[in-house]
Amino acid sequence: MNTEQETGEKPNISIKNLDITYNYENDSEEVKAARDINLDIKNGEIVSLVGESGSGKSTIGSSILNLLPKDTLTRGKIQLDGKNLLELPENDIREIRGKDISKIFQDPMGRLNPLMTVEQHFIELLNEHTDFGKEKAIEKSIDALNDVGIPPNRFEDYPHEFSGGMRQRIMIALALVLNPRILIADEATTSLDVVVQSQILNLLRDVTEKYNTSILNITHNLGVVAEISDRVVVLYGGKVVEKGSAEEIFHKPKHPYTKGLINSVIGLDTEELEWVEGTPPDLVNPPSGCPFHPRCPQVMEKCKKQFPEQTGFNDSHKTWCHLYES
Amino acid sequence: MNEKRNIKLWVKNLKKYYPTIENPLKKLIKGQEYVKAVDDISFEIKKGEVFGLVGESGSGKTTVGENLLMLQKPTEGQLYYEINEEIKKEILEAEKNGNKEKINKLNKKHSLRKRKNLRKLRKDIQMIFQDPSAALNPSMTVFESILHPAKIHKIGDTKEERKQKVYNMMEEVGLTPVERFKDKYPRDLSGGERQRVIIARAMILEPTFLVADEPVAMLDMSIRSKILNLLMKLKEEFGLTILFITHDLATAKLICNRIGIMYLGKIMELGKTKEIFENPKHPYTKSLMRAIPRADPRERERDKNLPEGEIPDPIDMPQGCRYHPRCLEATSKCGWGPRDLKEHIENNLLKIYDEEEIEEMEFNFKEDKENNKLEIHDKKEICNYLEKKKKEDTPLMNAIKETNKNQNKLTIKFKKPKEPKRKETETRAACFYN
Prior knowledge:
The complex is a heterodimer. Chain A is an alpha/beta fold. Chain A has one domain (13-100, 180-324): P-loop containing nucleotide triphosphate hydrolases (Rossmann fold, 3-Layer(aba) Sandwich). In chain A, 30% of the residues lie in helices and 21% in strands. The radius of gyration of chain A is 20 Å and the shape is globular. Chain B folds into two domains: 2-270, Rossmann fold (3-Layer(aba) Sandwich), CATH 3.40.50.300; 336-414. Helices cover 37% and strands 21% of the residues of chain B. Chain B has helices at 24-30, 61-68, 85-97, 100-110, 118-124, 142-152, 159-172, 178-181, 191-203, 221-238, 249-255, 273-278, 283-291, 338-347, 349-352, 355-359, 380-389, 395-398, and strands at 7-19, 34-46, 50-55, 76-83, 125-128, 209-213, 241-246, 258-263, 266-272, 365-368, 373-377, 400-406, 409-414. A six-stranded mixed β-sheet of chain B has the order 5-6-7-3-8-9, with helices on both faces. In chain B, strands 10-11-13-12 form a four-stranded antiparallel β-sheet. A three-stranded antiparallel β-sheet of chain B has the order 2-1-4, with helices on both faces. The model of chain B has no long low-confidence stretch (mean pLDDT 88). At the A-B interface, helix 5, helix 6, helix 7, helix 8 and helix 9 of A face helix 9, helix 10, helix 11, helix 13 and helix 16 of B.
């Protein structure tokens, strides 16, 4: 089933046949949040996971660093350096968090410790993962802050003394100070104003270029996706329904859901309101066959019975839709 | 009579200041400080139009909305509701002549702040909130939520009639089949459905004026348009006037007849939507338009030319034009002062000193707001840097009136700041350029 092409370059991280089920074997109803996800991210590549709330995008992001609740069932593989992250013991995952893979979130204030200065945040992180002396640690931190445009005299300030955009810059500096190979950005610019959002997106693109970091960008905002992604993966109801380069997804979308999603974006050149009819799927009892079939304007009989096979248009552009099966 | 009242709402010199809580001693010394959330704004909304108030977070747009509904009491200013040009003229005239008695009389008759029967008016002015889950009572079913205001305002004569009205309204907003939705609780609904309940709850009172505060910001992209479409449909059907509060210029462009762009409690630009988008005047408006992310990777390399930094602290508002520190088109007369210079030096420390030096340094800047000057002590390097920098033709440096070097102290004095005003009829943007 998994036929992610081998284009020579080895992926940085590789997700294979990932299934995630919440409330597994406890009293509540099982929620099938992600089903059979396959995804490779190459070095220095920015890949965006797009979908509505409940599509499974954040769940996938959290599974990589093992940040899901205890009674969650994860099956499949998330491979980094030949290790399956899903099977690593907690101690080993701790080693990886913040060092090989780091994550930034929507709300930076909620992630920074209000009782610690910026300096203390850096020192704590560097002590955990390196044996730098204090001097080297400070030097490293100031370099990282410089990269994100925070002046060095703010080093001893507390989080509340910064504005929202500055806090997000500090989070990015913290996430990048150890030169991780992968940065997971979960709605990292969603709560910021457009101008600041645009600044942060530029910043993310610059630093990844500089350090060859890969980004897994998780968002529902298609504008943000178009601004920074190399490749885009579209999720619906816990399934990947289409993936391709940013150009392919925005200019040659194939899956009816992708088309609907792109048409419903309200941009400066929008003249008429368009939307996708219906409501998001119930993940306790996901729709049979293709999860999008109850909302799909081009639904066919077999869509209700069977999830479609992959159709590839070229090496990068693929969709899972019966319309394109030969 | 109402037909002739073609001005639905005239917001006149509205101010809303929040006192900052500080210790009494400091208050004595410095005086009470305020967050000027809304700082003297005026605009009017014509009957039947959609007026958009657009701004970043912290611009005061939501505060304006809440003041209109008297959910908060304005600090100053009046909100004249359902008036016409004649009444407006009368008010302006009375104000010009200093006729306090007449102003009071007119205010009592027309201003929301002074009118007695506010509760009746509340039925006429309804609000839709951003977060549909927070605005619904989790222990009320859809039916109960919509019925509740109808009961309070005695809509319909009998129980049966009220019930029918609720059902009709549910159909109107697309909560169909009614049977399936009426007994559901908010937690059983999707975000879009919850927002429909909120819209139905507002519309059941048959309002004529709707304040919609970010009604789609929390919804998924794929259904935002559908909710907006519903609002527009209701507007046509019920002849609504809408104040649409949003941070999203693109949405405002699509549905508003006129928009006002707010920044730090002030309206920076106001005009017909079409005119503003075809020919934005204020540098802030231009920046906002450039910054909107485009859902097209081909536009990625466009010239964005972003302003620096973020919306500043409203307690300590920049002097002069409040946008000047971030403005890309600022000139020397836009209000530069000691704080801007201090910030400039701080941001360029790495150019002046080595990293190690900075760590051990204490900086003695003394800001004198009253006289608009900055004192710097004991820092030869900074003096030298400024000497060099002063020769450059930047607005900040050009705004310096005089520099005094006295032993170890450098005093830099700036020109007196002025704030650009937007005169209601003559100019669209509050900017010295226009």
